[in-house]
Amino acid sequence: MGVLEDLRRVVGEDGARLAESGDRVAEVPPRWVVAPTSTEQVGRVLRIAGEHDLHVVVRGSGTKLHWGAPPSAAELLLDMSRLGGVVEHAAGDLVAIVRAGTPLRDVQAALARSGQRLPLDEMLPGATIGGVVSAGTAGPLRLRFGTPRDQVIGVTMVRADGVTAHSGGKVVKNVAGYDLGRLFAGSYGTLGVLTEVAVKLAPVPEARAFVTRPVRTPAEVRDLTTRIREAKIGPVGMEVECPVPENYRRGGTVLRTAPDPDSMVLLLEGPADGVRERADRAVEALGTDTTVSTRPPTWWGRYPFGPDDVALQVVTPVGQLFGPVYSLRDAAREIPVRIFCSPAAGVLHAGVPGGTDPDRVARIVEAVRTVAISHGGYCQVLAAPPAVRAELDLWGPIDALGLMRAVKHEFDPAGRLAPGRFVGGI
Amino acid sequence: MDVPARLAAVAERLTASLGRSAVISDPAELGTYSCDGLARYAVNPGLVVLPETTEQVVEVVRACREADLPFVARGSGTGLSGGALPRSDGVLVVTSRMRRILEVDLAAECAVVEPGVINLAISREVSPAQYHYAPDPSSQQVCSIGGNVAENSGGAHCLKYGFTAHHVTGLEVVTPDGDVVWLGGGKCRQAPGYDLLGVFIGSEGTLGIATKVVVRLLPTQESVETVLAAFPDMSSAGAAVGAIIGAGITPAAIEMMDALSIEAAEQAVACEYPVGAGAVLIVELDGPAGDVAAELAAVRGHCERAGAFELRQAADDAERAEIWKGRKSAFAAVGRISPDYIVQDGVIPRTALPEVLADIAELSERTGIRVANVFHAGDGNLHPLVLYDESVPGQGDAAEEVSGAILDLCVRHGGSITGEHGVGVDKAKYLPRMFTDADLDTMQLVRCAFDPGHRCNPGKVFPTPRLCGEIPRRGTTPHPAQAAGLAEAF
Ligand SMILES: Cc1cc2nc3c(=O)[nH]c(=O)nc-3n(C[C@H](O)[C@H](O)[C@H](O)COP(=O)(O)OP(=O)(O)OC[C@H]3O[C@@H](n4cnc5c(N)ncnc54)[C@H](O)[C@@H]3O)c2cc1C
Ligand SMILES: Cc1cc2nc3c(=O)[nH]c(=O)nc-3n(C[C@H](O)[C@H](O)[C@H](O)COP(=O)(O)OP(=O)(O)OC[C@H]3O[C@@H](n4cnc5c(N)ncnc54)[C@H](O)[C@@H]3O)c2cc1C
C-alpha cells in the first residue's frame, strides 16, 4: 500500500497530501504532509511512519521550522494545525488543558475572558503551544514566571512507536511519577509528539507599568540591576535593548530610531496602587531621565533577529552578561548586531544580519562563546542561513551529552523523529 | 559469589579507600538506618557508607557496579514514603558528611552546596545579606537538600514560589554507572540540550546520587503580612479561599485546619486559636509594601464576607511565628489526641474541596475512623491525618483502608496521589490508579537511559520494573514482586 493511502485511511481525504515547496523543513523537502485531528490519529500516523520507515518532523504553526540543525531526513511532516482548541479551562483552579496545535494567542484570548493568562510571552506571532513548549522559548516574563517547563503541569504525548503516554496531571502540585513535561520542554520535537499540554495559569494583573531608563554601557546595566534589586521594586520583566548604530538600515526599513543610548525597561505588575507607588520609587532610584508608561516599547517581547538572520542566544549567571555584550560588540565591529538582553535573568539574544560572511559569523560566535563559557555560560546559535550554518558549531560544548543520547535512544531507538536536529547530532 | 560475600568484599574495598569510620557493617549500628520517616517499612541495610566527597561517592557507586549490588541514597531520612528504605542486599549511601556550603554567589543570586546540607542552613547562611532559599518544607530544620531534590519538595510557600524544581539550576550527579556529570545550567537559569535536571528532580533517588546542588537565592521581600482567620466551619473557610484566588490574588501561602486538628494543636502547643472555630485559615502575603497593603485589605474583606468571626493580624515576626506555631506542629500534635496516625498526602483541584471534604467526612463516619484535616488550601494539597489505635484489633487495617480510599477520592477528582511526599515504596501500588501501563512504561524509558543495570534505588516508585532494552508485553500479568505485595519485594 502507498503511504498516502495509508495516511488517508487514518486522517481522511483532506488530512493528508503530497508535500509542496512551502512545506520544507529548513532545506529538507518532505514528501508527505499529514494533519491528524486527535491523539489517537497521531498514534496511528506514527505507526504508519514506522511501517514505511519514514522520518517525521512535527510542525506547529510552521513559521519557524528552520531553526536548530536541519533534520538529516524528513519524509513526513506532521502538521498540528488541526489538533487545536482548549480542552478544559478550570478557572477556579487556575489550570487549563490545551491541544498542542492551538496558537498561543487563541489560548490567551480564551483565558482572558476569565481574567487569566498563561504567563508566557508570544515571541513569534502565530506560535502554537506545542511549538513554544518544544522550543522552550520565553520572553520578558521569564524573570517572574520562568520558561515553558515551569508552566507545564501535565502532558499527553505520542512516542515514536505510536504509543500514547501521559505524565503529570491537571493539578499544580504533583510529584507522582517522573515529570516528562520538563523533559519534553525544549526537546525540539525529538522525543515524541506533544498532543495535549496542561498548564498552570496566572491572573491578569490589575495594573501594569513600563519604566524606561536610558543606559550607556553594559557595566551601567549591571549596576542598575543591583540598584533595582535593592530598591525592592519587584519587576516581573527587565529588558535592555542595545540598538545598532544609528545609520543602519536594511531593505528600506530603519531598524532603530531611538536616540543614542540603549534603553532599559522594567515591567511592573500588580494592584493599581502598588504599581503606581513602585513606579514612583523606580523613578527615584533610577534618576530623572526615567519615564513611565502603560504601553511597552515596540521591541518588547520580540527577538532582535528576523527569519533570515543569524540568531544567537547567550546565557550566563545573573550579573555576568556584560562580558558577552562587550565581546559581541568587539567581535562584530562594523557589523550591525542587534542585541536584546534580560540582565536579571542572565539571558541575551542577538541578531547578526543573514548576509554576513560565514567566516566572520564563525569568528563572532567563537569570540562570544569563549567569553560566555569563561563566565560559566553558554552561547547557542538558534538559527542561521544554510551557508552560515555549515560553518558553525550551533551549540558549543554540552554537558551530559552521553545521557542525552541515551534518553533519545530509549524514546526513539530508530531515530525516526527529527533526526540530527538537536544537540550532538541527536 | 553470594550476596553476603559480595557485601563483605565491598565493605573491605571501601574501608581501604574511604577509611574505617566511613563504613558501617556492625548489625546493631545498621539498625539505626533501617527506615526513614515512614517507620512502617523497615529493613536493615546490607552496608552503610558515609562518603565525604564526590570522588568517594564515585568510588562507592563503582564498587556497587562491579559487585552488582543495589544502592540507595539517604539524606536525613525524613522522607514520608519510604524512598530511603534500604536494601538488605545493598549499600546505603548516607550524605550526612557532605554538609558544606561550598559557595555563596550573591551577584549571581545562587549558592553551591553539598547534598547533605540542611535546607534551613542555606537561608541561615544568606539571611544577613537579605536573601533566602524559598522552598520551605515543614521539615526544613532537618531535611537535606539532596532529599529535597529527590522528592521535589515543596513547602507552605510553594503556592507563590514553586517547588524545588523551580529553585535548583544545576546538579552534579554521580550516575548509576559511576560517572560524574553536570545536569542543568550550573549557575545559569537554563542550558541547551534536554532538561535532564528537570527530570532528575523528583525522581526519588532512582537516577543517580546528587553530589552538588546549585540553588537560587531570592531577595527577602519588603513586606510580609500574616492573617489568621477563624470560621464557623470548613465550607465558609473554603469559600474564602475561592474568593481570594478568584480575585486574582496570589498569597505566599494559604493554609487550612479543621476543628480536630485545631484541637490537637491546642493540646500540643497551646496555639490559642480562636475558641469555637470550625476551621482556621492562615493567609500570608508578601511583596512590595504597597501591593501587600492593597491585597491585605482585599483578603480581610473576602474572609469577612465568607463568614470569618475573628481575624488576627501579626504585628511582627514574633506574632507571625505564634500564628504559624499551630500549623507547623499539626502532624506531631495529633499524637496528643490519638495513639497512632497516618499522614496522608494527596492533591485535588482546589475547587473540588467542598465535595472531597464531605466525602472524607462520610468515609470517616462509615468506618468510625477519625480524620483530622490539614491542607495547603491554595493548591489543593491535602494532608488528612487518619487517626487510629493499633491496640484495638482491626483498627490499623481500617485506617489503612480509609487512607487508601482518600487517595481514590483524589484520583477520581482529577488530582494526584502525592503532592510532596513522593511515591517511594509506600504508594507504588497506587501509581497505576493515576497512570496507565504505557504511561509508567514511558517514564521508565528515562530510568533505562540512566540506570540500565537497575542498581539505583530499585523497587521504588514504579510497581513493575521495566526490563530495559526490551519491548514490554501488553496486558501482562503482574510482576511477581507486585503480586507478592511491595514490602516483600525486598
Ligand atoms: C532560532 C529561533 C528563531 C526564532 N525566531 C523568531 C523570530 O524571528 N521572531 C519571533 O517572534 N519568534 C521567533 N522564535 C520563537 C519560536 O519560533 C516560537 O516561540 C515557537 O517555537 C514557534 O511555534 P510554532 O508553533 O511555529 O512551532 P514550529 O516552528 O512549527 O515548531 C517548533 C519546534 O517544535 C517542534 N514541535 C512543534 N509542535 C510540536 C509538538 N506538538 N510536539 C512535538 N514537537 C513539536 C517542531 O518540530 C520544532 O522543532 C524563534 C525561536 C528560535 C529558537
Ligand atoms: C515532620 C515532617 C514534615 C514534612 N514536611 C514536608 C513538607 O512540608 N513538604 C515536603 O515536601 N516534604 C515534607 N516532609 C517530607 C521530607 O522531609 C522531604 O521529602 C525531604 O525532602 C526528605 O529529605 P531527607 O534529606 O530527609 O531525604 P531522605 O528521607 O533521606 O531521602 C528521601 C529520598 O531522597 C533520596 N535521596 C536523598 N539524598 C539524595 C541524593 N543526594 N541524591 C539522590 N537522591 C537522594 C533518597 O534515596 C530517598 O528516595 C516532611 C517530613 C516530616 C517528617
Tell me what you see in this structure.
Chain B: InterPro entries: FAD-bd_oxidored_4_C, FAD-bd_PCMH, FAD-bd_PCMH-like_sf, FAD-bd_PCMH_sub2, FAD-linked_Oxase-like_C, FAD-linked_OxidoTrans_Type4, Oxid_FAD_bind_N, Vanillyl_alc_oxidase_C-sub2. The complex is a heterodimer of chains A (426) and B (490). With 426 residues, chain A is of the alpha+beta class. Chain A has 4 domains: 79 residues, Uridine Diphospho-n-acetylenolpyruvylglucosamine Reductase, domain 2 (2-Layer Sandwich); 118 residues, 2-Layer Sandwich (Uridine Diphospho-n-acetylenolpyruvylglucosamine Reductase, domain 3); 82 residues, Alpha-Beta Plaits (2-Layer Sandwich); 110 residues, Alpha-Beta Plaits (2-Layer Sandwich). Chain A contains 13 helices and 21 strands. In chain A, strands 17-12-16-13-19-20-18-21 form an 8-stranded antiparallel beta sheet. Chain A has a 5-stranded antiparallel beta sheet with strand order 5-6-10-8-9. The longest helix of chain A is centred in the C-terminal third of the chain and has 17 residues. The radius of gyration of chain A is 22 Å and the shape is globular. Chain B is α+β, with helices and mostly antiparallel strands and 490 residues long. In chain B, β5 and β6 form a beta hairpin. The C terminus of chain B is likely disordered. Classes of the chains: A alpha+beta (426), B alpha+beta (490). Chains A and B meet through β9, α7, β11, α9 and α13 of A and β9, α7, α8, α10 and α16 of B. The site of one flavin-adenine dinucleotide has 36 residues of chain B, from β3, α5 and β10.
Radius of gyration computed on alpha carbons of chain A: 22 Å
- Biggest sheet layout of chain B: 8 strands, antiparallel
Strand content of chain B: 15-25%
Largest interface: A-B, 87 and 91 residues
Overall geometry of chain A: globular
- Can you summarize the main beta sheet of chain A? 8 strands, antiparallel
Helix coverage percent of chain B = 25-40%
Q: Structural class given helices, strands, pairing of chain B?
A: alpha+beta
CATH class of the largest domain in chain B: Alpha Beta
The count of helical stretches of chain B stands at: 17
Strand content of chain A: 15-25%
Mean pLDDT of chain B: 93
Give the N-to-C terminal Cα separation of chain B: 19 Å
Uncertain parts of chain B: 471-490
pLDDT averaged over residues of chain A: 92
> Which architecture of the largest domain in chain B does the CATH hierarchy give at level 2?
2-Layer Sandwich
Tally of DSSP β-strands of chain A: 21
Give the number of domains of chain B: 4
Oligomeric state, counting identical vs distinct chains: heterodimer
Bulk shape of chain B: globular
